Amino acid sequence: KVQLVESGGGSVQAGGSLRLSCTVSGYPFDDADMGWYRLIPGNECELVSYMSSEGYTNYADSVKGRFTASRDNAKNTVYLQMNNLKPEDTAVYYCSADQGYSASCHRDLGYWGQGTQVTVSS
To answer: Would you say residue 103 has pLDDT above 90?
Structure first.
């Protein structure tokens, strides 16, 4: 059974940092393109970062320079380091495996975690 388990969410003040983790089991992680997405209340689900299996990464313009994705293939884990957080980053953050690159979420494609809540207060 394929499982993606996110962790690391929480509540922080604006300007703070969080690191999200997503650990994958039951799936060939080394060959997987891994994405981070978020669902902001009242908005569409949107891409945050997309990392190919080779490590090439794209970021949404809204997070460039503040968020950094990385992966540890030995631990089957992808990370999202989020710095200088803003209230508009408040969302449920999801990781996905092999959804395919898209600016929006396609929950019927690939595999998805359950999400982790990030709340940023001003």
So the answer is: no
> Does the structure show a pLDDT above 90 at 101?
no
Phi-psi region of 84 (alpha: psi -120 to 50; beta: other; left: phi over 0): left
Residue pair 63/10 in contact (Cβ under 8 Å)? The answer is: no
Q: Torsions phi, psi of 29, nearest 5?
A: -60, -40
Phi, psi of 68 (to 5 degrees): -135, 125
| C-alpha torsion angle, residues 112, 95, 52, 100 (rounded to 10) | 40
- What residues contact residue 19 under an 8 Å CB cut-off, 6+ apart? 8, 79, 80, 81, 82
User: Is the distance from CB of 63 to CB of 40 less than 8 angstroms?
Assistant: no
